Amino acid sequence: MTPNADRLEIWAVDGIGDVRAGDDIAALISATDPGLVDGDVVVVTSKIVSKAEARMFDGDREAAIDSEAVRVVATRGDTRIVETRHGFVLAAAGVDASNVPAGLVALLPEAPDRSAGRIRAGLRRRLGVTVAVIVTDTFGRPWRNGLTDVAIGAAGISPLLDHRGQVDQHGHSLEMTVTAIADEIASAAELVKGKLDGRPVAVLRGLTYAVDPEGRGASALVRPADEDMFRLGTVEARRTAVTARRTVRQFTDESVDREAVGRAIAAAITAPAPHHTTPWRFVVVTERTKGLLDAMLDAWTADLRNDGFTEEQISRRVRRGDLLRGAPMLVVPCLVTTAGAHDYPEGRRSQAEREMFLVSMGAAVENLLVTLAADGLGSAWVSSTMFCKPVVRDVLELPGDWDPMGAVAIGRPAAAPQERPAREHTEFVIDR
User: N or C: which end of the chain has fewer CB within 10 A?
Assistant: First the structure.
């Protein structure tokens, strides 16, 4: 069923009064004789749901935010944008001190969809009507000033209207349009409820809507993390990308977006380098991966046999190549120091300068890995190519002055990487 309406009516419900812990919201609404009919949408401010469900915090507001947040997305001054356990991203985790007794702050309902379902069932039981219920809260919006009410809980109404595949009046097929119908209703209802009028419930009439056959409620409005293009968009989020980056040891067969790798390489070449040089080159390997790894394996095996290693020892050591072999793409960072550096007596480069170039290459590789992680790509940096540089140059047809400095395996992680063990930075710092 496609939501539609030629004419809508929206009005606030008077007489709800002060709500206390343990109150039945459906009973409070029913007592006002709201004149509900089948198909109405009842819109309820989350604040009174929180009060009725005793979702009040007695203590410091910052501590309340800490208790509700699972991830800090951004901060500026005293303002924190966080993600809650529900998946909502909003300021202060929805913790609010307005319209509550002094010394208390209100938390968002524990399960807003369930709360909406209880209110809907209560209204049907008390008034004999089948309505939809939407629980709302006020959110800010990235890139736009001003606040607006959105749906954080819903029952009896599909919160999204999917227009994809439909054809407009000009014959164009809609490919991206999914309308947040529940959010539109929440914002419209706020126009009659108001922030200061003490009218936390509104009714919308005249809309024909689908009835959420899957029962997903407003949780369907929360964008999954892997589809969120703006998940890592602030200084704090970039820090998260740094700390969340882990070595991936198993990849899926999914192809890698070359543009994402290009962005990572663009970040890599912003690394500091000595003497205004640009000592980095990156070889993107897709077609020659098997040939490269086979040639490297032969070289390693021959060297290890010459050094007297047993076949079992050789097998263990060359197994590291399996990680590279399972990746859809390899990038081989190469150090090139023959141009733009200072000259030294007898044409020899000092050990100090060589070390500066190596540090620069390390910084470039780190930029590469972190940017890949920010784009949702997994990676593993393996030092293998450093042990058979002539072979790598030959297979990849590289200039003689290109110095392969390992290989970076890139792809979609086949499983979530292991969490990084917690470490205090003070363990690695001494003050003098």
Answer: C
- Phi, psi angle pair for 57, to nearest 5°: -115, 120
Give me the phi and psi of 128, to 5 degrees please.
Answer: 70, 25
Residue the block writes with tokens 């309820």:
44
Same domain, 300 and 419: yes
Select from 45, 53, 57 the least CA-distant residue to 93: 57
Cβ atoms of 49 and 109 within 8 Å: the answer is yes
Share of the chain above pLDDT 90, in %: 51
What's the mean pLDDT in 239-255?
80
Euclidean distance between CA atoms 52 and 44, whole angstroms:
12
Residues 30 and 148 in one domain: yes
Residue 259: other Cβ atoms inside 10 A: 9
Q: Are 362 and 215 found together in one domain?
A: no
- Please check the confidence at residue 422 and state whether its pLDDT lies above 90: no
Q: How does DSSP classify residue 164?
A: T
Residues 299 and 158 in one domain: no
CATH number at residue 367: 3.40.109.10
The residue type at 384 = S
Pairing of strands 178-179, 280-285: unpaired
pLDDT reported for residue 353: 76
Q: Identify whether residues 287 and 382 lie together within a single domain.
A: yes
Residue 145's SS3 state is strand
Written as six digits, the tokens of 28 are 């409070």
Cβ partners under 8 Å of residue 142, min gap 6: 230
Q: Using an 8 Å Cβ cutoff, are 88 and 70 in contact?
A: no
Global model pTM greater than 0.70:
no
Residue with the bigger pLDDT between 13 and 352: it is 13
3-state secondary structure of 11: strand
pLDDT at 237: 55
Assign 186 to helix, strand or coil.
helix
Structure tokens at 49: 């749901």
- Give me the pLDDT at residue 346, please: 47
Length of the chain: 432
